[in-house]
Specification:
Blueprint (H helix, E strand, L loop, with lengths): L7 H22 L6 H16 L12 H15 L3 H18 L7 H33 L1 H10 L2 H17 L1 H8 L3 H7 L2 H18 L17 H18 L2 H27 L10 H26 L5 H4 L1 H32 L3 H26 L3 H19 L4 H11 L2 H4 L7 H6 L5 H12 L7 H21 L7 H12 L17
């Protein structure tokens, strides 16, 4: 391990690159809005990672890795959000580990490596510095470095004295020295700024020296005693025969299929067939009470299938049990579809929110996971294959979600299905739409245009909201004047705001003009 730190120039050069990147981060981010600068900074880190791994240039397929990283970073150009930053961060980890030759090939193992990398990243710089100091002390280079620093003491001291004398003798030099305001330089040293630099240095350093922590050490196995192992094996076999044997699993699958068929039948009657519900129970209550518990039921069912039908077991090879599992998992998929329909009915009455959109995405992922369980059993794959397939599905879904403007989607849906616009449903919660941010501007404008032609235009609450909308747009346009905040989504929104004419609300002392 210490051999990695004996080459001091390599360590110092990487530290210099990290300091340079921290300085660029200070220029791009400190006290500034986040936008296209996040994408640019990620590209700079990737270039630095390539530069400090010269051995990677010997790979003829090196261009594939930067191309894949660029695709993963594209969501940052669309919009900077927690989701797009998370996708970019995971891609950067994979890119750095691949260049250093430490990336594994299984998707499930790659996910574990990403988690370990992010957990160890905040402490990597401190740990590497301590190990480098120990290695330098053992190699005797510490004295050499101290001597190299000592030789600068006398020249710098006398140089400062000479500079002061020249300043006293030469008015031009004295003027130049007067421009140096040490108090202003000290004002730039702020605790928040120092913390920002340390945070960036720690994060950048983790990518420049991508390493994974060694959490476990291999312990040699002790030789088992014959009679004890035989006794324990017999005990385990007996327990498996009782709890997870063919007979138990067969009976469980029969019972589970019957119960799930009952639930599916009730949903088919009430949700799809339009049967009348019992007195005192509305369709909204029926939909809301069942949406989330049914998802938990499907997850428990998936866990049972994975535990009972382990790859290579005699239970998994039984054709009758396999058919019952196929039927049961298919019913679970129907259960998830029913949950999605329940949630759609509930949203149709109580409008759309971020959490309900997330629930739709989550339910779709659960349905995909159940389908993959069927594929795993039918193809005879391992649980690691199933985990990798689910992680790939999750990654593709999150990547696609980065390009969806959920704020605009929620705002448009709630406006189009509100009581004011359609004459049915619930009253629009316009203040919630305002909390969604600038993405809700077009939907709010349509709502204002519609309400301005009705008696609601004289409502003080409505006019207050219209005024807040105008001030929000003014703040947004001021923010967009900073090039650091640019993104494709904001560019499209600015084009809309520029094309849109002024919105005038009649019967008021002064007409409301958004953005004025």
């Amino acid at each position: 391990m210490t051999s990695l730190f004996t080459a001091a120039p390599s360590y110092c050069s990487r530290l210099g690159v990290a300091v340079l990147l921290a300085a660029l981060a200070d220029f791009l981010f400190y006290g500034q809005p986040a936008g296209i600068t996040v994408f640019l900074f990620a590209i700079l880190i990737a270039a630095a990672v390539v530069a400090v791994h010269p051995a990677a240039f010997s790979d003829g397929r090196l261009w594939i890795k930067p191309a894949a990283l660029l695709v993963a970073l594209l969501p940052l150009t669309e919009n900077v959000s927690a989701l797009s930053v998370s996708v970019a961060l995971a891609a950067m980890v994979v890119f750095a580990l691949s260049l250093s030759g430490r990336l594994r090939h299984s998707i499930a193992r790659i996910a574990g490596q990403i988690g370990l990398f992010l957990l160890a990243a905040p402490f990597r710089l401190v740990g590497d510095f301590i190990r480098w100091r120990k290695a330098a002390r053992r190699s005797g280079r510490r004295r050499v470095r101290l001597a190299a620093l000592a030789v600068w003491v006398m020249p710098l001291t006398l140089g400062a004295v000479f500079l002061a004398l020249f300043g006293a003798a030469n008015p031009v030099i004295d003027y130049w020295l007067s421009l140096i305001d040490l108090l202003k330089l000290l004002d730039l040293i702020q605790l928040a700024r120092i913390a920002f630099w340390l945070f960036v240095l720690a994060g950048v350093w983790a990518f420049l020296r991508p390493r994974l922590p060694r959490l476990f050490r291999r312990v040699p196995r002790a030789a088992p005693v014959a009679d004890v192992s035989a006794q324990s094996e017999a005990t385990v076999t007996t327990i498996e025969d009782i709890l997870f044997g063919k007979a138990a699993i067969l009976r469980a699958l029969v019972i589970f299929n019957m119960l799930f068929a009952l639930q599916t039948g009730l949903d088919a009657a009430y949700l799809w067939g339009g049967a009348a519900l019992p007195d005192g129970l509305s369709y909204a209550a029926y939909a809301h009470r069942g949406a989330y518990p049914l998802i938990v039921t499907a997850l428990l069912a998936a866990g049972f299938v994975l535990a009972a039908l382990r790859p290579g077991s005699t239970t998994s090879a039984d054709p009758v049990i396999r058919r019952l599992v196929y039927a049961w998992v298919a019913q679970n998929i129907m259960l998830v579809i029913s949950s999605i329909l329940r949630l759609d009915l509930y949203i149709g009455i109580y409008a759309l929110t971020y959490w309900r959109v997330a629930a739709f995405v989550w339910m779709g992922l659960v349905a995909a996971g159940l389908a993959l369980i069927i594929a795993r059993i039918a193809l005879g794959k391992s649980n690691e294959w199933l985990l990798s397939a689910n992680l790939l599905t999750l990654s593709a879904t999150l990547y696609a979600c980065c390009f969806i403007n959920f704020a605009a989607t929620i705002a448009n849906y709630n406006v189009d299905h509100s009581l004011e616009m359609t004459g049915q449903g619930i009253t629009l919660d316009a203040w919630y739409l305002r909390s969604l941010g600038p993405g809700a501007f077009p939907a709010l404008d349509r709502f204002f245009e519609h309400q301005s032609r009705t008696a609601a235009a004289n409502d003080p609450a409505f006019r207050e909201l219209a005024g807040v909308r105008g001030s929000d747009e003014g703040w947004y346009r001021t923010l967009q004047q900073n090039w650091r905040a640019w993104s494709f989504r904001d560019w499209r929104l600015n084009r809309y705001l520029d094309r849109r004419g002024p919105l005038v609300i009649p019967s008021a002392t002064e007409p409301y003009v958004p953005g004025r």
